[in-house]
Amino acid sequence: MALSSPGTSPDTGTAGAASPGAPRPTRGLLPLLLAGNTAMYALYVGVPGMLLALQIEAIDPADKVANFGLVSGVSAIFATVFNPVAGALSDRSGRRNPWILAGGLLALPVMLLLGSVHTILLVMIAWCLGQAVMNVYQAALTSVVPDRVPLAARGKASAAVGLGLPIGSTIGALVGAAFSEDYRTGYLVFGAIVAATAALFTSCAREQRMPAKAPLPVKQQIAAFGSALKDHDFRWAFIGRALLVLGYFAVAGFQLYILKDHTDLPAGLGAEEAVAILMPLNSVAMVVSTVLGGWLSDRYDRRKLFVGASAALAAVALVIPAVSTSWTAMLVFSVVNGLGFGCYMAVDTALVTMVLPKAEDAARDMGVLNVANAGPQIVAPFVASLIVSLSGGYTALFLVAAVLSVLGALAVRPIRTVR
After folding, report:
1. Residue ranges of the chain with pLDDT lower than 50?
2. With left for phi above 0 and alpha for psi between -120 and 50, is residue 75 left, alpha or beta?
3. Which keywords has UniProt assigned to this entry (predicted)?
4. Same domain, 102 and 232
């Protein structure tokens, strides 16, 4: 999974494809986008956040943290590389639906394979295959908004895409908890959800073939990346996003193990059930703060203030479970962290659009920003497993993540062109 900004494309520059004069989107496209993204995030949360962690623990309980960090890190590298490749291939074909359908349908047999393997190496290989097919699905689905939605309707479309994260996260946690005792069946359920949604989307959202696009040479892509980061304000926005995302995913990826080995859960409450409680709380808080933060930052025209404050709030949230291992502390952490991260992502995305180096390169530079989303997700599992292994627990992990969030808050201060 590569976390990306709503309404932007991770592939080779499709974000500006649609125009006010472009064909109107298919009737009912927004609900289909919501369904497609919800299914994707349900798998992305339920599989690595619950089932994969349980499977790795069952194979090798003693080294579960190191093994989970290895599997998560390697698969994240695979996902980050495969996403733009899949996007470029769909660009060259001039079609999105066949890639959405292929990726979605292939999710089912790959999930069957993942549930049938019994060694860490085979788990890693199977989950890398899972990331491959899901990134075929994701790259094509992400490109639907800029391809088919007129500029005037982009806000509504982005909202439909964005709501897929909290809704899908909640569904993923609930389904994962329901099949915690039978993760093989759980894998099949997630695969079936994605496959069915892909079939529904492609059968209902018809598309017109677009002119094929030539791939951008690698040298030009590298040059474009360097050119964007030479801009002072954009560079600091990039650094701030990378720091906060690193802190967030260093903790989020190990949530099940944190609940098992760090948190004092009430009698009768298992870690899997605890995840199913925390995720909806976090999602609701994220939705509220996303809407409220975006509205307030618009009203007061103060992007830096809200970005810095929300990153600082995320840091405060991370300190709570570091100083207390109680279940109440974990509940408070989940809500406060959701408030901070949701507001940050909403307002920081708006801030970034205001510091893009060149308007004509907006799609390219937003793609550069997505490196600040995807890159830390690669590093986070390795960093987190190393911290936990060296410190012997999760307290240090929370504190390091809090420091990263504080640094992310401070990184917006040097930005000059936005208040």
Report:
1. 5-23, 25
2. alpha
3. Membrane, Transmembrane, Transmembrane helix
4. no
